# Entry
Amino acid sequence: MALITLQFQSTSLCRPARVQVLLPNDIPEEMARENEHYKRPAKTLVLLHGYAGSCDDWLTGGRVQEISGKYNLAIVMPSGENSFYLDQKGTGRAYGTLVGKELIEYLRKTFGIAMSAADTFIGGLSMGGFGALHTGLLYPENYSGIIALSSALIAREVMNMKEGEGNGVADYDYYRSTFGEPAELETSENNPEYVVKNRLEKGEAIQPIFMACGTEDFLLEKNRQFRDFLKEQGVDVAYHEGPGIHDWKFWNEYLEPGVRWMLGEG
# Structure
């Protein structure tokens, strides 16, 4: 298992972007020979971290090395700061473009992976679950499936915020700078629901989505609301709930089922 910590000069951020990459390119021959997943080229999963996290989180908290080797899966983990993986106003803050386009182009050029949308997926937890949904929906030419765990689907909450308000995570000014003007969010590309409706109006098919959230998670109702929205729009969504809170125990329990689902095994 090759673990590569890299920085590449990002035009989206106007500075180096930091990324962790797992490549299952040194699995012992006898192990690969007995594993059906090594009878095809490696597929790629871009995994996004949560709020207040970094590209190291999946390595320190998750089972990504095991899953990478077991499923012949290149796992790519970029740092998205606290951006919700959105393109924000001002130079050097285009995190959505970074993950949706620039990172994929770099992986293709440098490692020869993620060469087609059919072989490339995106996933994440919490803020990264929002980012996976938003980025995957906005860049279907690069991502054919989405895994969203305990997603921070807070667009509806943000669009109702008034100046001076906020929540236990951040203040109004943070949300305004991250999502744009709250009053305009309902019809903004920073709103995943708007992206879905816009694509459907154009006659586009939405790629399948895997969602999971713990029954004791503070984001449960927001995940249920988005699930219901997707079903109302006719989107193929595999939704799962199980005992758990907003923690690595739950995310580790559901990441592998999400991977099996995206590979057509779940």
